[in-house]
Amino acid sequence: MPVGGGFAARLDEMECAAKVESGSIPVAAALLRAPVADLREFNDLYGSGRFDPAYEMQTAYESYVELLAERQARACDIMDDTAEALREIIALYRRVDGQG
């Protein structure tokens, strides 16, 4: 669909990217979201016996994986928001073009 200034919106291609559950953006977000729970399920390094370097490293490791999980979850939320915005843009273009 041509839009002013020579810009063309390829609505069908956009829809393939944004479609709920099966679009490339929601699928990518779901794949990236899958390991977040595993990252947040911190398995300590204590094991049997006492190994002081492991105790010292554990806090840093736990903080690192939590930060990684937070960032990954936030990225997935942004991807979901992007797909939703794209769906709204598609609907708007279709209404303007008399398709919807």
Tell me what the structure shows:
This protein has helices at 11-18, 24-33, 36-40, 52-96; strands spanning 2-3, 7-8. A hairpin with a 3-residue loop joins strand 1 (2-3) and strand 2. It contains four helices and two strands, in the order E-E-H-H-H-H. It has 100 residues and is mainly α.
Task: Give a short overview.
It contains 4 helices and 2 strands; from the N terminus they run ββαααα. It has 100 residues and is mainly alpha-helical.
Keywords:
100 residues, mainly alpha, two-stranded antiparallel ribbon, 4 helices
Radius of gyration, in angstroms, nearest whole number: 22 Å
The number of strands is 2
Assess the beta-strand content as a share of residues: under 5%
What is the subunit arrangement here? single chain
Mean pLDDT: 84
* Helix count from the secondary structure assignment: 4
Q: Give the overall silhouette.
A: rod-shaped
Which stretches are poorly predicted, pLDDT < 50 over at least 5 residues? none
Within the largest sheet, what's the order of strands? 1-2
Helix fraction by DSSP (H/I, runs of at least 4): 55-70%
Largest sheet: 2 strands, antiparallel
Distance between the termini: 14 Å
What structural class results from the helix and strand content?
A: mainly alpha
**What order do the SSEs take from the amino end to the carboxyl end, as H and E?**
EEHHHH
Summarize the topology.
Elements: E1 2-3, E2 7-8, H1 11-18, H2 24-33, H3 36-40, H4 52-96
Antiparallel strand pairs: 1-2
Helix pairs in contact: 1-4, 2-4
